[in-house]
Amino acid sequence: EVQLVESGGGLVHPGGSLRLSCAASGFNFNWSPMNWVRQAPGKALEWVSSITVNGTSTAYADSVKGRFLIPRDNAKNMLYLQMNALKHEDTAVYYCERSGIRGQGTQVTVSS
Predict the structure, then answer these.
(1) Which residues, including other chains, have CB under 8 Å from residue 82's CB and lie 6 or more apart?
(2) Cα(first)–Cα(last) distance of the chain, in Å?
C-alpha cells in the first residue's frame, strides 16, 4: 500500500523558512518522480514542484521559483520541501504526491 506522510508544517512569519518532509513507503521510491502540491483555503489544488527519480532535474511553479527547493533522499525514502522567504500567499495545506496519490497533508500558515 502506497503511504505518504507529510510533516513539518506550522505557523511562520512572513520572510521565514520551513522545511517540509514526506516519508514514503509501499512503493519503489527510487524509481518514482515526486511532486509537492498545495491547496489554499477556498482554492483549487496547485502544483508546486517536481523532482525526477535521481534528483538531477527539478521544476517549480513561478510563484515559488527562487524561494523553494525540492531535495530528496532515496536512501531514506524521503522527500523534502525547503521553503524560504515565505509569503502570506504560501499559506496552504501541502501534500507530497506520487502518481496522483497524496498524503494527509501538513498545514503551513504564514502570518504576522
Answers:
(1) 17, 19, 68, 69, 70, 71
(2) 40
Buried b (16+ CB within 10 A) or exposed e, 83-105: beebeeebbbbbbbbbeeebbeb
Cell 517540509 found at: 20
DSSP E strand boundaries for the chain: 3-7, 10-12, 18-25, 34-39, 45-51, 58-60, 68-69, 72-73, 78-83, 92-98, 101-102, 106-110
| Beta partners for residue 24, in sequence order | 4
Q: How high is the mean pLDDT in each 10-residue block of the chain (112 residues)?
A: 96 98 97 98 97 96 98 97 98 96 97 94
pLDDT of residue 13: 98
DSSP state letter for 16: -
Nearest to 37 by CA among 52, 25, 23, 22: 22
